[in-house]
């Protein structure tokens, strides 16, 4: 449903618009501001050299005044449910303990994101400020933690073989960072990456199942 709305009505559900359902006589209690990914993605090439200073500097200095711990705890602007990486981590422990979520998928997504963001961070870019975001920041901003724990682990659409879960998760982590950093149209990439992983999950499982069948057949012939 979210993917359909995202592609069918992109301008209506994204950007700087604030929707207020009121009669014209009521004041708004509060509103959210720019996110760290949105701030970096909106910098033009001439100001890309600011890098993470655009996020960590104080508001008076032109930044957002955010720290990594703020992002980890969830004391930052963002969509409901995704801002606190700590809450998502607690959810991950519960899902793993109850056997609902796969720790292999979660670990593979994080590994794929760390490897990809580390390579892009080392490469750097003079015209793209998102390259300057360190790998550990990518784990706590946007919907990465929420998507890793609650969406990528969906047992229906995820890979089911143990080896396939590692490839499936790594692919999602890789695509998330690639979309975030390379594609300026999407400051967040976890949803598209998960959809991409879901498409390839059956194919990934197919190759792992076929490999297991061949290995067992070879073992049977040797035993005979």
Describe this structure as you would to a colleague.
α5 (85-98) runs parallel beside α8 (144-151), α6 packs parallel to α9 (162-182) and α9 (162-182) packs antiparallel against α10 (190-223). It is elongated and about 75 Å long. The chain contains ten helices and no strands. It has helices at residues 2-8, 36-42, 53-56, 68-73, 85-98, 103-123, 135-138, 144-151, 162-182, 190-223. It has one domain. The protein is mainly α.
Helix-strand pattern = HHHHHHHHHH
The number of distinct β-strands equals 0
Mean pLDDT comes to 81
What is the overall silhouette? elongated
Share in helix: 55-70%
First CA to last CA: what distance? Answer: 53 Å
Number of helices in the DSSP assignment: 10
Q: Which ranges are low-confidence, i.e. pLDDT below 50, for 5 or more consecutive residues?
A: none
- Compute the gyration radius: what is it? 20 Å
Largest sheet: none
